Amino acid sequence: MIRFARRLGFPALSLVCVMTLGWPHAVRTALYRSLYPLVAIDPSALAAPPDRLTSYGYVVDPPDELAAFRAAASPAVSGVTDDGARLRHLTDLIYSYHPGRDPFPVIPGGRERGVRAIFDDIVSGQFALCGHKTLVLAAMWRSLGGDVRQIRFTAGDEIAWYAAHYGIEVYSSQWRKWFYYDATLNGYAAANSGEPLSLVELNERLARGDDVAMVASEKYTDWSAEQFLAFLRLNRLQVYSLNNRMRGQDPDRRFGILNFGYAWLSQLPRPLDRVVDAVTGDGGRRFVVRGGSPPPASAARMHLVSASPRPIG
Question: What pTM was computed for the model?
């Protein structure tokens, strides 16, 4: 049906949207899987460097298309060489636009409004939710030339039209590996050697009941280490995006060949707007770890390792 809609264009696309509203959950799940195929992958393959993931469909924006983010990000990481610290300073910058934890005024809408509009809202002082912070952090990291992949968390709903939380993994040239960074925690998990951990490595340690050190900011954060651990206990489905073009949702690009209809299409209720995105070419496969992510053992604990603060501005 998706190929059929692509061939017939806007009228067929409208028909697909109307039909989807009345479909039962099982049919909508099948539709989701056809739009965003979930590829079960071994952890060793998931850990491969970016150039070895392109065959699976890994794509990112050219850094030159994220110049506005680079203009903000570059001063924040000037002179900082450690990749974990660079991410923390970038996230500190995002938090600094809305000091305090009063969640008002909150940024309207979700990530579908586009990363540039969301960044403008953050800079204006509006409160950013986890999806907003994560998307802008990913754009900042990519603007500096780094590779990044976004991760969606849910409690187990495979179609995941709605994500319970967002995080990112970045590829570190310093450590020659991917590691997980959580903007809501504003930190990352680290081994005793200081090496940052990927999400798979973090899950494995928690499943064994190991204590895990979290290197995080105490000033700029919306979660404690205990809250992050409690969240991981409840949300075991972790889906890695292969399509990491942050600008794909911007008003001048969203809906691809049907971008001329953005004003109407952007008003479609979820998940119909996601269907249109996928039909017009902004879909992409998503990874899940083969066998799933093991639940944390009851004995597992996280403890905070305070990160050295650095003035913003």
Answer: 0.89
